[in-house]
Amino acid sequence: MKDSYWELTLTLDSEYVEFIADFVANIYGDGLEIGKKNIIVRSENELSYVKDAVESLVATLGGVIAVSFVLEEKKNVDWIEQYQNSIQPIEAGKFYIYPSWFEPKEDKINIKIDPALAFGSGHHATTHTCLEVIADRVTAGKCVLDVGCGSGILGLACTKMGASIDLCDTDPLSVQSCEDNFKLNDAHYNSLWEGSANKSEGEYDIVIANIIADVLRFIASDLKNATKSGGTLILSGILDTKLPLVLPSFLELKLIEQKQKDEWVTLIYYKETDE
Predict the structure, then answer these.
(1) Is residue 161 located within the same domain as residue 79?
(2) How does pLDDT run across 7-37, given as a tens digit for each residue?
(3) How do residues 137-176 score in pLDDT, each as one tens digit?
(4) Are 234 and 253 in contact (CB under 8 A)?
(5) Exposure class string for 103-136: b at 16+ Cβ within 10 A, else e
(6) Of the candidates 215, 214, 210, 223, the residue with the CA atom closest to the CA atom of residue 241
(7) In terms of pLDDT, which residue wins out, 11 or 80?
(8) 93/128 Cα distance (integer angstroms)
């Protein structure tokens, strides 16, 4: 172990923490510490490349996300072990999400996700709520599209329910992380691509998009087009203060359920048939 390590702290609005943490986790292989308004990255190697990558991402989004950075060199401790000790398995609906250093549960549907490898381990409120919705609404034989798949945890949950799953993400590193996690769980997907719902070739019984509110508004038409008549659209990643901005983009669909955990909202829509 080296005598020192590097610590990068990113401070930003809570609305964007999950989105940025997902991006960071897919370019950086060790554990992240996720706070309400910050993300902490630690490594024995210098971390300026992570800072540069986030700055580049923010620039491509037109500067809508304000992030401040503090990069420090600190005296070393076994922070990886401390991090792993702080991560506990969680239960969400029928699912048991656990890191590889824990054992699966016999009475649950088990999904193995190592938080040290990718964000999206079920601990965030939006992911947790989506897992509950999947447990209630996804059934065997359904065709599902997971838009913005990240670590692939929601897609994995759908496969565990017997559904056929397609997945996509605009971040190529998320696509790779998703593929790795499917292999980790000996699970299979139909199709996985870099991009968004506009690249889908068909319509789906269920479309899931756990993304930030601004992106949901931007791709609203693509999400609705990907949902077949009589199908279900599940939207999450919506901060409650942003809800009035999202709702107008989906007025032609029937809102059948609204769930909230902490300050995060999940919306479940039904796309009525043409008949």
Answers:
(1) no
(2) 899 999 988 888 888 788 777 766 678 888 8
(3) 999 999 999 999 988 999 999 999 999 999 999 888 789 8
(4) no
(5) eeeeebbbbbbbbbbbbbbbbbbbbbbbbbbbbe
(6) 214
(7) 11
(8) 9
Check whether residue 188 and residue 243 sit in a common domain.
yes
CB 229 within 8 A of CB 96: no
- Got the DSSP string for 179-230? HHHHHHTT---SEEEES-GGG--S-EEEEEEE--HHHHHHTHHHHHHHEEEE
Show which of 84, 111, 145 is a domain's final residue.
Answer: 84
Q: Are residues 132 and 42 in the same domain?
A: no
Q: What is the pLDDT of residue 14?
A: 85
Q: Beta partners for 194?
A: 169
CA distance 129 to 110: 17
